[in-house]
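hey can u check if this looks right to u? its 309 residues, i copy pasted from the old doc so theres a chance i mangled smth
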Amino acid sequence: MNRQILQQTAVILVASLCLVGVVNGHPASAIAVDDKGTVYFVYTGKGLMKIGADGKVSNVFESKGGHWMCLDREGAFAKTQPKYFRRVTPDGVKPAIIFADGGAPLVVNKDGNLYYGSWSTKEDGFAPAAATVSRMRVDGTRENFAPTLEKTLADMGEGMTGLATDRDGVIYVSTWSAILKVKPDGSVSFFAKDIKLADCDWDPPDHNQANHKPAFRGIAVDIDGSVYGAATGCRRVAKIAPGGQVSVVMKSEAPWVPTDVALHDGAVYVLEYTNGNGGPDEGWAPRVRKLGRDGKVTVLADLSETREK
């Protein structure tokens, strides 16, 4: 794959094919829950996993890579499957599952279009993280969805680390230290910026040159407008209310770090990885935990014991 294709398509996936050198940057940031409560998550190096209603963990799709995944709840985007995003569900199945080995965050919005993180088209090298949001329409056409977002992120000195959408079709973008909103017309505003967590077990990501806290990755938007984010660098899951109030709702103990979150029926589902801020040589293995409405934390899957040494 040549550089021009990479820059134009900004290959990626929230709720994600194989780019040499991208997969090794960090483990998967991809977990989603369908309307029936089935949990899907990406196990980097293994592929797409599923936790069924009986609690059994199974492999849905094998891949030596594995980085991003999202649900296309109405299956509209899957009708025009592009070469860089792999649909791993059969025709007619809802939700469709879109999977990608490498790249940047992605999400299918209520309009059926795929929104994904893109790198700059400039010729001065790659950004440390995706620099803007592109849109791939159901008919397969691609466009820069939010032209001003690239400048906003450049002024911040940060790149995109996560994508989510709300029921109104607004796109939310996470960076290392902020959450931005992109309306359907492409206009950009801050949901919260310079976010700080009072309780931060700081574990700087190896690939984050600026070492911005709290080093968010995956995010999810609740029906009340609150945003939940995996504060990977702080080993915490944070909740940011619409008014800006920040609280920690879950902690991860070393060597675990959260990499993505999903919401379903009042519960928060968290994908965690061992050594998630380091390189693959340190050992990446996932687990999934659930924070219930009653505040109880339950381990749904722990694959650290089965990881190949």
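The CA atoms of residues 44 and 273 lie 10 Å apart.
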